[in-house]
Amino acid sequence: MVNDAFDYFDHVYVINLDSDRDRLERICGRLVKMRVSFERIPAIVPPAMNIRCPEVLSGHFGCAMSHLHLLELARQRCHERCLILERGQRGRS
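Structure (tokenized):
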């Protein structure tokens, strides 16, 4: 039944920082256990920023850049329905 829900998507992507191997192993383990095919995309680490708005952190900017990059990639590949998961996702195992 779980795979039926994932079958709706053309592709499943996992965004993950290269340095964050533990979280990658956890989410990959969960997806493999559920027999869900996915592709890992490295998260973009933004350059140092001089922002005067305390609500915007460089990590937020990097997250937005990663998602925009991935949406462009999905568009180029003609994926109409893609699922994007990232390091903070939680799911039942």
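DSSP finds three helices and three strands in the chain. The chain has a mean pLDDT of 82.
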